[in-house]
Every structure is written in C-alpha cells, then in structure tokens.
Amino acid sequence: MDVFTRQDFDNFLKGYQSQLNEVAFWVDTDAIEGTVPAELEGTLLRNGPGLFEIGGKSISQPLDGDGQVSTFAIKNGRVFFRNRFVRTEALMREQEAQKMLYRGAFSVGNPAGGLFFNPFDFSVKGIANTSVLAFGGKLLALYERDLPYEMDAELKTIGHTDLGCSIDTPKFFGAHHRVELDAHGHERLVGFNASEEANSALVNFFEYDEDFRLLQKAMHRLPGASFGFFHDFLVTENYYVLLENPISLDLAKLLTRYMFGRACLAECLEYRDDRRTRVHLLRRPGRQGAEHAIAETEPFFSFHHVNAFEAPGGKVVIDTCAMKSGIKFDVGFEGASEAYYQQPAGRATLTRLVMDVATQQVTRHELAPDRAAELPSPLAPPRVGRAHTHQYLAASRVPGALKWGPQQGVMKVSVSPDWGVSAPAAPDGPRRAFWFPADRAAFAQEPVFVPRREAAREDDGWVLTLVYSATEHRTSLVILDAQSMKQVAAVHLPLHLPYGIHGSWSNTFFGPSKAFRPTSYCIKHGVSANGRPKYAK
C-alpha cells in the first residue's frame, strides 16, 4: 500500500453515517477478543457528531453533526456500553420542526431559506459535539462556541451550565481543557474560551479545584489576533500557552458568498502563508515569569497540542501538531475525494517548538516528519505542564508527504525532554512505535492514554482507541499496552459509531450498579399521528 485510493476513501466515508439508535448494554464476552485487563477500571468517554441529516436533508459537513456521547464503562474485565445524543436546545427544536433552523460553522447554506441573511450574524448552532469531560462530580459535553451541557451518569441531558456563574462574557467554554496536579497532588481543571473583537482576541482562562470551585479566572486581550483560531491551549507551571494561527477574515467572500448562503463561516477564514505564527505566554495568576511574552516563527497552522513545559535556561517547550502548508476549511461531503489526501495542505506532523522567553526566539524541530499525525492523547495529570517523554497520536498508515490518508492507527513517540533544548535535535532521537488494525478498511480515532494506578513509569498503562471497520460496518474499542504498543483486547460492538472528535478517561465507573436490562431507542420512533416527532428527553 503506497497511496490512499478511491476505494480507501469510499471505505472511509462509510463511517460518516448517522447512528440513530441509543442503546445501553453489557458487551457479551463472546464479542471481546483477548482479555480486558482486570486492573483497568473506569470509563472511556467519547463525543462526536452522531446525526448528519435534519428533516430528511443531509448536512454538508460532518463536523456540524449533533453531538452524541458514548461511554465504555470497564470493571472486572467487562465492558458496559451506552450512547445518547446530547439534548441541546438546537437539536430539540430542529427535531420538533423536522427542518434545519440554525447555521453550522462548517456547512454551506441558509437554514432560513431565501436568498439573503445577515452576514454579520456570526452565531452558529450549539451542537455539543466536540469533547466530553467528567470532573468534580459533573459530566460535561463541550463545544467551544457554547456553554457546556451537563449530563447525568446515564447520559440524560440536564441542560446548560455556566459552572457556578464562573462563565459570563462570552458565554462559551472551550472544547479543550487540561487536568494537572497542583503542588499538593490535587487535580486542577484548567479551561478557556476565546472570542473575536474588532482588532483583538479576548481570551479567558478558568481554574477549578476537585469540587469544581473556581480558583482563578484571568482575562487577556491579544492585539491583532482576532482570527487566531484558538481551538486548543496549554499550561506550564507559570504560563498559559496559546498559538496564534496566521488567519485573516476574507471580507470579500463574507459579503459576496457567505451572505447569500454560498459559503460557510469557516470558509471565510483564510490561511496566510505571508504571516507568521505567534506563540503567546501569558502568566498565570500568582505565578512567576513575564506577564505576556510573544515570539514569532515561520507560518504553520495547529488545531491540537500535546503538552508544554518549562526547561532550564529560561525556555519553554511546546509539542504540537503543525500543518506547514496550512489548512482548507471548505472540505465537506459534496465533491470530496481521495485527492484531498494527495496534497500537503492539512497534513499535520508532530513538531517541537522551543521558545527562549528572554530573546523571544523560537526554534522548530519535527519529531516525526514523514507521518501525518493528529488528535494527540491527553497526558496524564502528573505530566501536564511538566517534562514528558512519551506521547500518543492518531497517525496515517502510509508515510510520505502526498500519500498520507486519514488517521488509521496509533503512533507512540518517545523522546527525551531535552531533545532540541539542551541536547542536539538528532534525527535518530525520537523513537517511534506503531499499531495499525490488520484490516486496511479500518480507521482508528484519537487515542486516550490511561495510566496504571500504581504506575512505575510514565508509559505504564494502556492506550484506548475506537476503530471503525468499513468491512463490518461496526466500531470496536481496542486496548493497547502503552509500553509495547501491542494489542491487549478488542471489544467489538454490534453497531457503528460515527467518527468521534475528542474524549477523556475517568476513574469513575459509569456503568450500572445492579442488574441491568439492555435498552434501545431510535430517534426516528415516537412520531405521533400528525407526523410531529416526540423526541424523548
């Protein structure tokens, strides 16, 4: 296999089919290949788009699908599975109306119908489809342009939450967060939001204790960064870390195409390779260091970051997934083909940035230059903001700049924290290990590292990933040994889950505490005589 073919692309697209059934059941032992480790206890939480049509009309971009949360609760070698749509206000209204009512950030079209709508209305549908977090007794479905939706342990939607009035302006809570350990060994959740102003970006950071009490809130304005596309962030001991992408608003496209429903909002954002990518270090409240240090480097685009830490000599190290040839925001279902995977745009490679805070200089080193990699696993709390050696990412099966294809497996990269900092960035420094499913028509998703409770080493634990098989049209939970990258178990579901976006691990078991009868509900059911859907809460 040396190129991603049309057949491969068709197989990939099969994973973008709506999952209308909401189910809850113990996975039969006959459906488990290998042995689920007895020490592995807790829940893998996953979120992603689960519905790709509204009132019989397909949406044009999968990222705008309504959020569906899934849980794999693991205990005593058994797995309990559950999935449910997040009952957002938008989903409930559209199911009642059986037609599209809201704009999507990535979908083209005017939901209200007609030829004209206000091009300066930048509101988009709240779909709660990007990530899911269990922390401080709350289970939250996240989408970066909305407040979190709280759910209970059975994934029933409770409703919007402003987290104890801590989120005010704007009413957003980002899809990405970091859970670190404080100086006393307690977990601390750090979240953020970002919004556009006339000539700057407004960014808020929030820090919560283990009971979800707000400890710190910090607001920063970043001049000239209105469209920096801050999807993710990082923390170190003393800093919040943001990467400002070289993006500008294409006003002509906004006025001539978006206003007539011929372009989506994201499509009006233009990657500029004549601008520089900027690194922002923003001092955390009560910490040490520069109040706001800025450095520039050659242009690249980054959605997702691995980790950052402070190194000797006044340096900050940032590992991120960098797209050197930028990104295109106009890729949807219509007109898509395998040709998208035969161009450099959108191809991210694992990259290390080393910033000297005093001189504001940045050096860049690629840790895995020939392999497309994205969706890095969240690090375990003891390593967040601190020096790390190991990282796990979803990776392309085929190496090479123009042959990469979508993510199909998991790549482990191991490299010394001082590589490229105080030690030379030798090409043979980073060590890589891979796992790919035997089936070529199978596609792995974001890996999630789960440390062993009494871990002796940083990579002592397991890596969990969901794998969609187009051949069998079903999804499996694959458990890998994090040190050897060998498969330990595969938990095969009798149904498929559309490709998810982000997930997390909780040490809490979100399964039933007593005997449980399997349940199933299809959202197309419950239609009354007059044809109006009664969408169950």
From TrEMBL:
UniProt superkingdom: Eukaryota
Key word Iron present: yes
Cofactor: Fe(2+)
Name recorded for this polypeptide: Dioxygenase
Residues at which Fe cation binds: H176, H231, H304, H502
Keyword annotations of the record: Iron, Metal-binding
Native source organism of the sequence: Elliptochloris bilobata
Lineage of the species this protein comes from: Eukaryota, Viridiplantae, Chlorophyta, core chlorophytes, Trebouxiophyceae
Coiled-coil positions: none
Cofactor: binding comment: Binds 1 Fe(2+) ion per subunit.
GO biological process, any: carotene catabolic process
Protein family membership: Belongs to the carotenoid oxygenase family.
Record-level Gene Ontology MF annotations: carotenoid dioxygenase activity; metal ion binding
